[in-house]
Amino acid sequence: MTKRKLAAFLLLAVANVFAANAFAADQQWILKQSTLAYHVSHPLHQTDGVSHAARGKGVCHDGQCEFLIAVPVKTFDSGDSNRDLHMIQVTRGAEFPMVTVRTRLPESAATSATVKADLEIQFAGQTAHYKQVPFQLVTQGNETRISGTIPATLADFKIDPPSLLTMPVKNDIPVRVEMTWGSQ
Amino acid sequence: MTRKAKISLGIGILFLFVLAANPVWGQEGNATAPAQAPANPPAKPAENLPDAPSSSKTEPSLSDLGFSPEETEANARQQALLDKRTHMLKIHQRMGLITTIPLVATVVTSMNAGGKNTSSTSRDLHVALGSLTGDLYGITSYYAIRAPRVPGTETRGQIRLHKTLAWIHGPGMILTPILGAMAFNEKNNGQKVHGIASAHGPVAIVTAGAFGAALLSVSVKF
Predict the structure, then answer these.
(1) Which of A82, A107, B148, B204 is the most buried (most CB within 10 A)?
(2) What residues are paired with A47 via a beta bridge?
(3) Is residue A4 part of a domain?
(4) In this complex, which of B53, B62, B157 lies closest to A80 when CB atoms are compared?
(5) Are B126 and B114 in contact (CB under 8 A)?
(6) pLDDT confidence bin for A171, thresholds 50/70/90
């Protein structure tokens, strides 16, 4: 074997290694826009706290995508600063400042109209699991819009129901999710 | 074959071995993950959720999302401040509700405290209830004023009206008993209530109205 042939063989081998790395790279999803809104019911009034500050990332590998979405507790705005501060206090939002949601979905779910996700939510120092939460998907080009409602409760996170005029709020705090994801 | 050619061939075979161990087009390979699968795959998370997140190395972490450390780190001092604030405002709320009872009673007894056909007993009862209201109001306002402020928080929403109304019922709660005491003395001296003391009733009505509105402003959504 000549030196030239050996050199060419080595170059080809190196190129193959780089090609292998390039084609085996994971697909990623980035959260572009989001609206997360919790709903609280009290005998005297209803309240919604909204945040647009969530960030998220999804990494796909082996046909499965691991997603992480996080949002600072203090970014939820109910329209009343006093209520928001009480919310942060009762959920121990200064001690546990982030709400994180983890889920795993099949890569093929991106083309579905609906998907049921198992969610792991960390909030207020507690971790709660929600099975088979239904979400609606609308895909347009590289973007996928996801919407659904997480059936969260205060008891799931060991939060004492806040009260107003001695009347506590309801245990149910459904969280409405509207997100737009972009694939890379 | 020369010595150099043998070394080069050896390197070439090594590359081939690397290629074989690192699948290129298949689904099982990952350029960033170790090539060999673990002997014992990680156990499924709690409750055997079929699609629950795994503890794989591809899983994104909080640091990937670009939050600043100030946003993600726990702040025990801030939590303590919020706890103290909530504790004091809960007492404020409770005391405010309790204050409402003698306040309403004071307004009701005012019907028999003034005018021509009133007895000193009715006036004394009115004064006693008014004094109790003033004392309880003082305690209520103390817990609102002394509750710690959270830096960087802008007052928004109905709480703003609640705080604004305090500028009406606060001075009113100081002025009303002063004017009441003047009216009480004039009445006891057999005089007709006159001068600034005659404003006791209107000031008291405005004060009680502002207090009631402040209570409603944080109770009913509008």
Answers:
(1) B204
(2) A40
(3) no
(4) B157
(5) no
(6) very high
Residue A7 within a domain:
no
pLDDT digits (tens, 9 = 90+) for A63-84: 899 999 999 999 999 999 999 9
pLDDT digits (tens, 9 = 90+) for B4-15: 555 555 554 544
Provide the CATH number for the domain around residue A72: 2.40.128.110
List the beta bridge partners of residue A112.
none
- Residues B167 and A149: their CA atoms lie apart, in Å, by 42
Which one of B11, B54, B64 makes the best mutation probe of the A interface by having the most chain A beta carbons within 10 Å?
B64
For chain A, how big is the Rg over CA atoms in Å?
A: 22
Residue A10: closest C-alpha in chain B: B12
CB contact under 8 A, A45 and B220: yes
Number of domains in chain A: 1
Mean pLDDT of A101-114: 91
**Residue A28's pLDDT band (boundaries 50, 70, 90)?**
very high
Determine what percent of chain B is predicted with pLDDT higher than 70. Answer: 72
Domain of A51 in residue numbering reads as 26-183
Give me the sign of the Cα torsion angle B56, B59, B64, B68: negative
The answer to whether position A49 is within a domain reads yes
With tokens 């239904």, the residue in question is A134
User: Residue B51 and residue A82: Cβ atoms within 8 Å?
Assistant: no
Helix axes B3-21, A3-23, angle to 10 degrees: 20
Instruction: Report ipTM for this prediction.
Output: 0.81
Total count of residues recorded for chain B: 222
In a domain, A19, yes or no: no
